[in-house]
Amino acid sequence: MVVRLSAVICGAAIMFVWSSVMARSERATHDASIVGTASTYNPYKPGYREGGPETASGERYDPSAWTAAIQTGLREKFGGVHGGRARYALVEGDNKRVVVKINDVGPLEPGRIIDLNERTMRLFDPTLQRGLIPNVKVTPLRGDDWTPGPIDEKVAASEVATD
Fold it and tell me: pTM (2 decimals)?
């Protein structure tokens, strides 16, 4: 009787530990993404307050590339752009997905989490008339072997950063 009770208690303890580990891993995957408003920027257009033609990663701003600037407070999550290498992120919104190279910091406007360059913004807003894309989900991607641009297939969950 004591052996059976010990086995039941041991089994219950294992199930409890396993469920808490699984809950933490699900939360980590979920917490890796941020949701907010995306805007656009182009330092070559008059009237914009952005920094200039050089990005925080040291690259020149290229309006024809698939790039973006992540909010300054999110640099740690997205790989600290200043003085370092650019990182990649998956941007999802309006039933569209695109892999972007995060090579700059911004946006300067409160309430926005990411600034998309012109080419990337045109995927979501072809006329650039809207200016803001609400409820955009941005997820940091692991590694450096990403090809920036629109994607149709889902990014495997194992490839999305969980820290």
Answer: 0.70
CB 78 within 8 A of CB 87: yes
Domain span at 9: 1-31
Q: First-to-last CA distance in the chain? A: 45
Distance CA 60, CA 159 (A): 28
Residue 138 · residue 33 · CB < 8 Å? yes
One domain, residues 37 and 24? no
CA 53 to chain centre: 23
**Which ranges constitute the DSSP H helices of the chain?**
2-31, 118-124
Report CA-CA distances (Å) from 128 to 40, 116, 120. 9, 11, 10
- Dihedral sign, CA of 125, 150, 82, 80? positive
| Amino acid at residue number 139 | T
Cα 29 from Cα 32, distance rounded (Å): 5
Question: Domain count of the chain?
Answer: 2
Per-residue confidence in pLDDT tens, the chain, 163 aa: 555 555 556 554 454 443 433 332 222 334 589 999 999 887 776 555 555 677 888 888 888 899 999 887 887 777 656 656 678 999 999 999 999 999 888 777 788 999 999 999 999 999 988 889 999 999 999 888 899 999 975 554 445 554 4
